[in-house]
Amino acid sequence: MAANPDTPLFNRTRQAREAEVMLNKLIDEFDDNPASMHYFYDLFRRLFIQGEKVAHPPGAQIGITCIQAPEELIRAVGAIPIRLCNGAYHYDQIGADLMPAKSCSLVKATLGRLHDHEQGVPRVGKLEAIINPSTCDQKKKAGVMMEELGYQVHDLEFPNVKESEPARIYWQRTVRELAVTLQRLTGRRVTRKNLNTAMARTRRAQMAFRALHNLRRKAPSLILGKDVFLITNAYFFDDLERWTSAVEALVAELKQRQQNGFNAAQKKAPRILFTGSPPVFPNLKLPLLIEEAGGVVVADETCSANRMLYDLPAVDEWRVNHMIDALADHYLKPCTCPIFTRNDDRRRRLLDLARDFAADGVVYQAFSGCQVYEMEQRSVARTLQEAGIPMLYVETDYSPDDMGQLSTRIEAFLESIKTRKRQARTQRA
Ligand code: SF4
Ligand code: SF4
């Protein structure tokens, strides 16, 4: 990692202070953090507080604004994907001058960060281009605004439905066009060999994540959710191989913890499934509040963690066009973002996760101004209620002002879960 010469006093900036406050809470307020987590704590400290830049092998840096941009194609042409989704309140406030007041904090903060540093994004440096999947309306419109800021933006046309064959074909064409754009940008062709290598590298990372994900099923819990969100957030920008090795080391440590009968959470801690608008560092306030209040986030259905890494591509024919089409399918079919017209798949996945991870309740985060997550909450609540799973719906943004009020609501929710479990035990006895 190299110091950022443009920002020698970065650690005194508002964004560094904001990151420091959150990171200190994530580390200091919990006993028994896994030793292997220090790789990630150190990474966040150096990037977000010291303003250092992640060292990557040489290659064009390509910004992506959503998980729907196929990273394997970017890696195949020797470029480095950097996810730009931002979680800083500081940048949210800058973005608020560019977008309507009632916009999603994530989109505002992403735009605010790009606006603030047209000469090079902190911790990232120069971006060769930005790939902007046309998913939700706010992301769509933000793409043009990024272009106005001087970035080269490639809009990746994303369908509104995922069940139909025409949508699938449309999306496959979009992804093939992306391959052409990437070839033009980097001067390197996508070949069977380099795409195969890129897919193998990503697959190793995904397998490491899956091992971690599966260990979260265990009771007692081996790791807290606040750490898992930090790990998956690091995937946005870290070197792929270093990230993978660090997760593999953590998995080995957690297996040892399991053998020792270790419990990372309090005895009888309510097990929470997290869904909705994605927690992005430093805005990890909701997972933090849940675990400060004695719950444990055992699984999630968010695009900053599980949805980003869990599903693996399935390739039947190893010819380059077929491989690209298989990648396109992989980025469309398992996607449970609420931008689609229907959300049957999202509700089914939530039920599966709640069952497989023995979740006692669900916390649903919707960023104020995110209409799609706000609109889906009723159908999700109904589905969960029918299955007997309580859900807490939280509308929030990046401001720290609602921490006290949220903390009270979360404590009450966890308490109601504990009461429910006590009553169920009494009835069984
Ligand atoms: S919430 Fe949906 S549109 Fe937004 S970044 Fe995540 S996957 Fe993309
Ligand atoms: S939280 Fe909502 S508005 Fe924000 S990026 Fe995701 S889908 Fe778009």
Give the arrangement of secondary structure elements.
Blueprint: H1 14-28, H2 38-49, E1 61-64, H3 71-76, E2 80-83, H4 89-95, H5 105-116, E3 129-133, H6 137-148, E4 153-156, H7 165-186, H8 192-215, H9 225-234, H10 240-259, E5 271-276, H11 285-292, E6 296-301, H12 306-309, H13 320-332, H14 344-356, E7 361-367, H15 371-386, E8 391-396, H16 403-428
Parallel strand pairs: 1-2, 1-3, 3-4, 5-6, 5-7, 7-8
Describe the structure.
The protein is of the alpha/beta class and 429 residues long. The chain has a domain at 271-307 and 339-428: 3-Layer(aba) Sandwich (Rossmann fold). The chain has helices spanning 14-28, 38-49, 71-76, 89-95, 105-116, 137-148, 165-186, 192-215, 225-234, 240-259, 285-292, 306-309, 320-332, 344-356, 371-386, 403-428, and strands at residues 61-64, 80-83, 129-133, 153-156, 271-276, 296-301, 361-367, 391-396. Strand 7, helix 15 and strand 8 form a beta-alpha-beta unit. Helix 8 runs parallel beside helix 10 (240-259), helix 11 (285-292) packs across helix 16 and helix 14 (344-356) crosses helix 15. The mean pLDDT is 94. It binds iron/sulfur cluster (SF4) (2 copies). One iron/sulfur cluster binds at residues 104, 106-107, 136, 138-139, 277, 339, 367, 370, 372-373.
